[in-house]
Amino acid sequence: MTDHPRRTPTGAAVLQPQITSAITEAVLDELAEHGYGRLSMEAVAKRAGVGKSALYRRWPSKQDMVIAVLSEFSVPLAEVPDTGSLRGDLLATLHAVHGWLTHPRFSKILPDLSAEAGRNEVLAAAVERAIGEPRRTQGAATLRRAVERGELPADLDLDLALDLVAAPVYWRVSVRHVTATPEHLDRLADHLLRALGAR
To answer: What's the whole-model pTM score?
Structure first.
């Protein structure tokens, strides 16, 4: 009996990383240039140089595709190292939030996505589930470390604290469109320490 060489699976069995990467870049570019409402699977496929079937093998819909791509981009940016101190962790977090909000493409995507989510409850829920919650989970882990080190009170309101940490950067950068310099973030870290009741 002759052994036949095994054939490489095709179609849905193989999702080539380089194609996924090209699609991801195309989604981000289309969102930045045209917004969520005008984004189409056809335009993404054309920009990525693939057929629409390559998109549908990965995601069942435009919303699923957009949420997956934005989650893959946004969630890792919330990861901050354990610096060993609350102030160090806060400063690292502030720089991470700032980097996320001022990213050349994402800074164009966020205002449109927020407006679209305000009109679309399903999209809003998907964004919160895939992006908001994972980012807040990472932020909560940072604050819990500080509680364990005795730097923050044990009865800290985590939900309120997470809003308090991120909101000033968002307000300054995305609403006021004012530059948040490293010096500003450094001063903000000191204000947050007092606001959080750091010991």
So the answer is: 0.88
